[in-house]
Write a structure and sequence with these properties.
alpha+beta, 19 strands, binds flavin-adenine dinucleotide, 20% strand, 532 residues
Length: 532
Amino acid sequence: MRERSHWGWGFKDRFPDREARTGIAAHASALLGFSAQEVLDPVPLEQIELREPAVAPPGDLVEILSADREDRALHSYGRSYRDVVTGFSGDYRRAPDWVAHPTSEDEIERILEWAGEDQLAVIPYGGGTSVVRGVERPLEGAHRGAISLDLSRLDRVLDLEETSRAARIQAGATGPVLEAQLQARGLTLRHYPQSYEHSTLGGWIATRAGGHYATLRTRIDDFVESVRMISPAGVWQTRRLPASGAGPDPDRIVLGSEGTLGVITEAWVRVSERPRWRARATLHFEHLYRSAEAARRIVQAGLHPANCRILDPLEAELNSVSSSKRAVLILAFESADHAVDVLLGRAIEIARDAGGELPDPPRISGPEGRAEGGEADRWREAFFSAPYLQNVLVSAGVIADTFETACTWDRFQELHAGVIAAVEKALAWSCGVGKVTCRITHVYPDGLAPYFTFLAPAKRGSEISQWTDIKAAASDAILAHGGTITHHHAVGRLHRPWYDRERPELFATALRAVKRALDPLGILNPGVLIDP
Ligand SMILES: Cc1cc2nc3c(=O)[nH]c(=O)nc-3n(C[C@H](O)[C@H](O)[C@H](O)COP(=O)(O)OP(=O)(O)OC[C@H]3O[C@@H](n4cnc5c(N)ncnc54)[C@H](O)[C@@H]3O)c2cc1C
């Protein structure tokens, strides 16, 4: 088993040594136009302070509970910039008292019972990749202690129903673990968030995660056929249906519930055959807005590219995709059944009409093999290694984080300009200098999902207050200009103030009533999404 880093993204063995980090930091400085700092090492696990567990567990649960130092550290935080800096500096005040590793629903029910009796907070934990403070224990409130309830031992594909193309999968399966089981049968879930390597089906459902694909089934919502959740009040099991008009949808209460209503244990999800025909191309544009216009026309023409990702010039350069100083539109179509070059051809025509230039010929491939290389592959590589780079940047005193939103097409230019201006102002004020970039991750006939990255020099010891200022400026600007506080990163504790402004007050009242019905003692993930 490869070991995960207790403080940073991903596997321990992917954190480079000091010399390599110094080299990476120098390269980043040259690209960013400000200096990284001397690289530091994280506080070693043996030196972090952990308080003694506040409560003793009942005898029948001892075997599935751990108070191991590394286990508690790993389960203390998610993996946003703020979390990584906190773990790097050795601050583990939020470590849970116990980490539970149940192997059955019966064990989950017993943990919930114990928590109810002893007034403990229970924090469902999938892969711990939350970027919104979704898996932290609360430090305030009436709870006497906290249990991190880790679903990773429930990671099997339990059933495949090939006629309807659906699979019943346990909630703790990570992307690679569930894909390996599906692939053995020639099938795929085809849902690839950037955190795919470590995040889980249950986490995706609980946060309404967004995958890599730009159109059609963009978010896990679109894959869920039915769910099973264990709440303190009992079992919430919905029926397998392709669609239903029978009142408000019970699956939709679970989707986005962020561990506050129950523990998702399994779901039936829609699977498909693995794509074999592919066609892709990249186009360059004078300006981000021209490329967005092209994407709008493509998706409104009824075309559904698997990838329709736009990078602004700086984003393209920082990710080593292109140094043309132009916006880049990456287009890709794929199918398990038929050739897709005609679809790509039409999308290219539309993009050219909107001002796009095609620097290289399209890459077309069929069942005999995949066409490798090019800007799209360079993007893919950068996309999946970016979280590892963030670990290095933290060690080199660089603030590096992302945030995202969605808005309708008519608001896009205003939102983009407003957010960039607000973040640049906040970067100048709190860091002196810094960069902010934008890419478009998902497109819909009526709108799009812009995704921003900011990078700036940190003042060591004040990183979190600098970051908090930038994040608040960005979130205020998003709401002011017609966006949502999140298209797919979820609410957690971090986005609560903006989520509270975004949702109708009566909806909040209704949600509180649901919370009281399912979790009457308020033990599940207190502070996330809603106050009891
Ligand atoms: C580098 C990086 C890249 C990311 N990329 C993406 C992306 O492309 N798309 C995207 O949508 N998000 C992304 N995220 C955010 C994060 O990966 C998602 O929110 C993901 O869905 C969380 O899954 P998880 O299994 O890690 O859940 P966790 O982080 O463990 O938990 C997230 C929330 O869900 C709850 N929860 C988890 N499992 C269950 C369960 N079984 N039952 C009930 N509640 C549960 C938790 O209590 C918590 O509130 C990224 C994060 C990082 C660090």
